[in-house]
Amino acid sequence: MGNxxxxxxxxxxxxxxMNSVGNRIAFTNCHIFDGIHSELKEDMTLLVEGDKISNVxxxxxxxxxxxxxIIDTAGxxxxxxxxxxxxxxxxxxxYEATISAIRQMPMQVLLNNMxxxxxxxxxxxxxxxxxxxxKEFTELADKNHIPGPRYLNCYTLISPSNGKKLGYPxxxxxxxxxxxxxxxxxxxxxxxxIKALKKACYKVRDSGGTHLKTTxxxxxxxxxxYATQDDFPIFNDEWMRTILEIGKETGLVxxxxxxxxxxxxxxxxxxxxVGAKIRIQHMTFDIDFKDSIIKKMQDNGFYMIPTVTVxxxxxxxxxxxxxxxxxxxxxxxxxxxxxxxxxxxxxxNIEPYSGQMVMECDNAYLRKHxxxxxxxxxxxxxxxxxxxxxDCGGTNTxxxxxxxSEVMHYFEFGIPLFEILKYLTSVNAEINGLNDxxxxxxxxxADLIALDGNRLLDPSALTEVSMVMKGGVFLKYRGxxxxxx
Length: 485
Ligand SMILES: [Zn+2]
What we know:
Layout: H1 4-8, E1 24-32, E2 41-49, E3 52-58, E4 69-72, E5 77-80, E6 82-87, H2 99-118, E7 121-126, H3 131-142, E8 150-152, E9 157-158, H4 171-174, H5 177-182, E10 188-189, H6 194-206, E11 211-215, H7 237-250, E12 253-257, H8 261-274, E13 278-281, H9 291-300, E14 303-305, H10 308-312, H11 317-326, H12 334-349, H13 363-368, H14 370-382, H15 403-412, H16 417-431, E15 448-451, E16 465-470, E17 473-477, E18 480-481
Parallel strand pairs: 1-4, 1-5, 6-7, 7-8, 9-10, 9-11, 11-12, 12-13, 13-14
Antiparallel strand pairs: 1-2, 2-3, 5-15, 15-16, 16-17, 17-18
Helix pairs in contact: 6-7, 7-8, 8-9, 11-12
Zinc ion (ZN) binds next to loops.
C-alpha cells in the first residue's frame, strides 16, 4: 500500500497559520516545568530558533532579541513534549478484514497519530505492529506531513511460533493474511528456526530500529492455565539468549513483554548472564515484586514500564462502550469503532464466567490482582527503576490520547506529581538514551507543550493540552488542531 496516505494527503507539509510567523519565536510571561526540577518557574521567557530551544530565563534576566515573534502566553505553563514508552501506534483496531475495515484502515492509523500528538506526546517508543505501515507513518510524521509524534521503532514483535497456538499475542490470528498484506506485515514475526530468529533481529537493526521487542509470557492474562507450553508457547532459554546476545552486539535494548513475576525474574537473570540491556514491559501482577529482582534491575540499569492502564482498564469496560458511542473527537473510524465495541461487549458478556478471555484477557482476573500492580509500581518508583508508558493500541481499549490515564494511576498510587512529570519527560528520554529532548534547556529540540494557566499542580490538567510544538513547528495552537484532511 506504499505511499497510500502520502497520496491521499497530497504529501505537503502541514501548514498552521502560526508557522508563517518565522522561525524565531519568543514565549513570554509563562510558567515553566523544565523536566528536571520539582518546581514551576514563574514569569519566564523561552526562545525557540528553528527546531531548537535557544534560550530560557527569568523575564528580568532575558531580554527578547529583535526579530523574534513574541507570544505572550498570559501565564500558561510550558513543559517538554511528553514521551510515551509503550505504544502500538499503527494498530488498526480491527479484528476481521471487512471491506470497510480495509478502506478505513489507513485513516484509523492516521487518527492514532493525531490523537497521540494532540494529547501532548511528541515522542513514542513503538512496540511493534505491521512493519510496512509503521515505516510509512514514521516518515510522514518525521516530516510533519501528518500530525504525529517522533517514533522510536522496533517494527515488529518477535514471538514464538511453536505449538498448536501461535502464542502471545493472538492478534496475529485475527489479523488475517489479507489484512496483513494491506498493512505490509503482521503484528508479530514468528521465526521457526534460530537462524530465522537472528535474521528477524538484524532486520530491526538494519531498518534503523532502536530496540528489539519480544514476549516471555508463560500463560494468558487469566486463571486459565494451559497444560503444556505447546498451548501457550514461550521461547526457551536458548532462544531468549540469542535475542539478548544480538541486543548486546547491536547495542539495541531488548524490551520484553513479561508481566508474570517468575518469568520477569528469569529474563533479568538471562540478560545479566549475557550482559544485555533490557526493559520489562508491563508490571508484575501475580506476585510481590521481590527485593532481589529490584536490586538486580537497579544494579544493571534495567527498567520496568508498568503500563498500569492496561490493568486499570479492566474496571471500566461498560464505560468504554459508552465512550465509543459518545466519542466526539473522532478517535475511531466507524468500522474500527464497530469492531472494537463488539470485542469489548464480548468481554462484558462473558464476565459472569470468569476464566474466559477476549484477546488473552480475563478482566475479572486483572481486577483481582490490581492491588499487586499498585504495590509493585510503588516499590519500583521508590527504587527509581520505572518510566511511563500506556500500551495504547496494544489492547482493545487502548485508545490513543490517553496518557493522562496512566498519569492518574501513578498519582492515585501516591507518586508525587513532579516525579510523574519527570517520568513523562527527562526520565523517559534517559531510558531511551535520548539526550536531545525531554528537558527545557538551550540546544535541546523545541518539542514543547503548553497548558492553560497555572494548572500543572492538578494532574488532570494534562487532559487539555492547548499547544503542541514539534521541532519548532506548531501542530496545535490555542486548542486548534491541525487536520490534514
Ligand atoms: Zn504492548
